[in-house]
Amino acid sequence: MADSKFTPEDHAALIRRYFDACNAADYDALVDCFTPDAVHYFPAGLPEIPWRSADTIAKKWQWCVETLGSQWTIDKLIVSHDTPEAMIEWTHWKNKSGTALRGAEWYDFDPETGKIKEIRAYYAAPADKEVRINELVAFDYAGRGYPLKSK
């Protein structure tokens, strides 16, 4: 990691700490995992997305725990050895309804602070047939160099 003083082990530990804070609905611990201007992107279907700021992210997860009985598990975790990025698979257990949602997330870490600056969530769920291209809401695919059409 040429440009960062943080190791893959540091990034893995932060993700685990983040999930512990989510499960505990611990506002201060949640905020401490993120840069103040962090963004959490989601697929279509949730209100008020993406979530912008550490404060917003923390409050939204607190709401999920209180309202849905949410708990999360990290099912798989992969951390890059040469860039400040990681990928996980997770399960979101919605205990009050007896349902669960599985998905994956891409993490980008701030090289200066080691904190999470961006999460991109992807769900293992049916595609939204009303949407022409199912993708994260408000994520700048073109600006990030993602393909915009099939070859």
Summary of the model, kept short:
It comes from Variovorax humicola. The chain has 151 residues and is α+β, with helices and mostly antiparallel strands.
Detailed description of the structure:
The chain has 3 helices and 6 strands. β5 and β6 (116-123) form a beta hairpin. With 151 residues, the protein is an alpha+beta fold. It has a single domain (8-123), classed as Nuclear Transport Factor 2, Chain: A. It has a 6-stranded mixed β-sheet with strand order 2-1-6-5-4-3. This is Nuclear transport factor 2 family protein. Residues 15-118 form the SnoaL-like domain.
CATH fold-level label:
Nuclear Transport Factor 2, Chain: A
- Tally of DSSP β-strands: 6
Order of helices and strands: HHEEHEEEE
Largest sheet: 6 strands, mixed
Mean of pLDDT = 91
Going across the major beta sheet, what is the strand order?
Answer: 2-1-6-5-4-3
- What is the rounded Rg? 16 Å
Which class of secondary structure composition applies to the elements? alpha+beta
Contiguous low-pLDDT stretches (5 residues minimum) are none
**Number of helical segments?**
3
The N- and C-terminal alpha carbons lie at a distance of 33 Å
Question: Helical percent range?
Answer: 25-40%
Which of globular, elongated, flat, extended, rod-shaped describes the shape?
Answer: globular
